[in-house]
Amino acid sequence: MLEMLLSVLIVVGALFTFIGSLGLARLGDFYTRLHGPTKATTLGVGALLIASVLYFSTRGEGLSLHEILVTLFLFITAPVSAHLLAKAALHLRVRSIAPPPPEAEDPLADTRVRAGD
Amino acid sequence: MKLRLLPHPILTPVLTLIWLLLVNSLSPGQILLGLILGWAIPVFTLRFWPERVRIHKPLTLMRFLAVVMYDILIANLAVAALILGGPKHVKPAFVRVPLALRTDLGISLLANTISLTPGTVSAWLSPDRSFLVVHGLKVNDPDSLIAEIKRRYETPIKEVFEPC
Question: What DSSP line would sit under B48-105, residue for residue?
Answer without folding.
Answer: G--SPP--S-HHHHHHHHHHHHHHHHHHHHHHHHHHHH-GGG-B-EEEEEE----SHH
